[in-house]
């Protein structure tokens, strides 16, 4: 945890904050080995980053005296990530990774090779999703939560939602065998679509290309989704 991320309601007034969440308290005790008088990096959800002096630490609460939390969070990546819903454990890791990298718009999409049972996973509970996003923010010293949308139908997504996403954005479909290598150093906004472990089926690729997306690849190797997502984002930006 490279940032103690505060919720606005944890700020008692302008100069003091109190954390009672067991996870963060455990991290302060066991990882930071914090002691009263230590100065730590703090941020407020949706706002700035700064420093705070630990005034008191117990098993039930940590109290901080805040300094100016005026440093802005790092800039977001100009990308809307459309990710075919991965298996639950991979979803958790992927959400944390892409949040740490600066993705702020995520759509989880159903495709033919996505197991229907994945949509019943507890990992899709809004609270669980929120927890994974927060872990990504803490890792990257960021304070702005991504927005996560669910799209449980491929065809409705392509026909009803994708056209609006592609307005003023470049659409990129990452799929093995596409003719174009993944571009590098993008500065323009884009929509990045990544299939499940088995890839998009040919019909899905055709529909995405017809919608105006470009097909790209990362080379001949077949990667796990969580690896491919990080590799694509690192190469694109």
TrEMBL record:
The keyword Protein transport does not apply. It catalyses: uridine(1498) in 16S rRNA + S-adenosyl-L-methionine = N(3)-methyluridine(1498) in 16S rRNA + S-adenosyl-L-homocysteine + H(+). GO terms for molecular function: rRNA (uridine-N3-)-methyltransferase activity. It is found in: Cytoplasm. Pfam families: Methyltrans_RNA (PF04452). Belongs to the RNA methyltransferase RsmE family. NCBIfam families: PRK11713.5-4, RsmE family RNA methyltransferase. This is Ribosomal RNA small subunit methyltransferase E. It comes from Candidatus Halomonas stercoripullorum.
């Amino acid at each position: 945890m490279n940032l103690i991320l505060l919720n606005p309601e944890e700020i008692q007034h302008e100069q003091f904050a109190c954390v009672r969440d067991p996870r963060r308290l455990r991290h302060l005790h066991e990882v930071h080995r914090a002691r009263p008088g230590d100065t730590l990096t703090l941020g407020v959800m949706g706002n700035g980053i700064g420093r705070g002096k630990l005034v008191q630490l117990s098993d039930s609460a940590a109290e901080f005296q805040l300094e100016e939390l005026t440093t802005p969070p790092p800039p977001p990546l100009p990308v809307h990530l459309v990710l075919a819903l991965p298996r639950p454990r991979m979803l958790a890791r992927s959400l944390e990774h892409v949040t740490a990298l600066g993705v702020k718009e995520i759509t989880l999409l159903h495709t033919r090779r996505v197991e229907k049972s994945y949509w019943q996973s507890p990992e899709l509970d809004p609270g669980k999703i929120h927890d994974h996003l927060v872990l990504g923010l803490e890792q990257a010293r960021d304070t702005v939560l991504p927005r996560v949308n669910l799209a449980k139908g491929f065809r409705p997504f392509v026909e009803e939602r994708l056209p609006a996403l592609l307005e003023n954005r470049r659409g990129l479909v990452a799929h093995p065998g596409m003719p174009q290598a993944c571009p590098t150093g993008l500065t323009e906004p884009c929509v990045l679509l990544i299939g499940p472990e088995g890839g998009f089926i040919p019909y899905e690729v055709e529909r995405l290309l017809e919608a105006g997306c470009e097909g790209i690849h990362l080379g001949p190797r077949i990667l796990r989704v969580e690896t491919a997502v990080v590799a694509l984002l690192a190469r694109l930006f």
